[in-house]
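Appendix B. Chain record.
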Amino acid sequence: MTSFTSPLTALTFDLDDTLWDNHGVMVATESGHYDWLDDATARLDIQRERMSERFPLSAYQERRQQVAQREPLRRGDFTWIRQQSLLEMLREYGLRPQDAEDYAAAAMEQFMIFRHQLTPYPEVEAMLDELGQRYALAAITNGNVQITRLPLARHFPIAIAAGELLAPKPDARPFLAALARLGSTPSQAMHVGDSWREDVLPALRLGMRVAWIDKHDEHRGDMPAGVFRLTHIRELPALLTHLK
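C-alpha cells predicted for this chain:
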C-alpha cells in the first residue's frame, strides 16, 4: 500500500482549466485561426465557393477526429493533428501541394497566437511565487500551450508537453519524466489538475498525492487516500499548509 507520510518537496501542475479557464480561449482560438484561413484562401480566387463553404468548421473538427483515428500514435499531438487536417482539406480545396503546406503552417501560426491569449486566474502568479520558494515546480500538459510563450514560464523550468511526447496523460510517462527531472520520487510529490481520468488516476497509481480541482462539482463523497478535492486553485496553499 502506498504511504503518504513522506514530506512534499515537489509539485506538478496541469495547465488548461487548472491555472486558467480554457473554454473561452479555445472557442476564440478555434474560430479565429479558421476565419483567418478562410479569408486568406478567398484572396487566392481559385474556387467560387469559400473554404468555409466547402469545409465548414464542423467538417474541420470531424477531419481532426478522422486523422486521430488513422494515426493513433499521434492522437495526443493536437498541433500536428490540426495541421495535417488543414493540409488535407487545402489540397482537396484545390491548392497545389506546396501552397497547401504553406497555408496550413500559416494557419497554425495564427492558431498559436490565439492559443496564448489567455489570462491565468488572478491568484496564480502570487501563489506560484510563494510555492516556488518551498517546492520544486513542473508543468505537465496534454494541451499545445507552449509555456515559454507565457509569463508563467518563469515558474516552470520543467515543462512536459505530453502530447508531443506521444504519451498523453493518463499515460504514466509524462509524470515519470517530470519527476525524474525534478529529482523527486512519487511519494515526495503532489500533482495538481482538474481531470479525474488524466490527472488524478495516473498520478495516484504512481504513488503521488493529488489535489483535484473539481471545478464542475463532480464528486463530493469520500476521496481515495492521497486525493484532496478542491473547487479552485486558490485553495491549494491552504491544503498544503494543512498537510505539513
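Further analysis of this model is presented in Appendix C.
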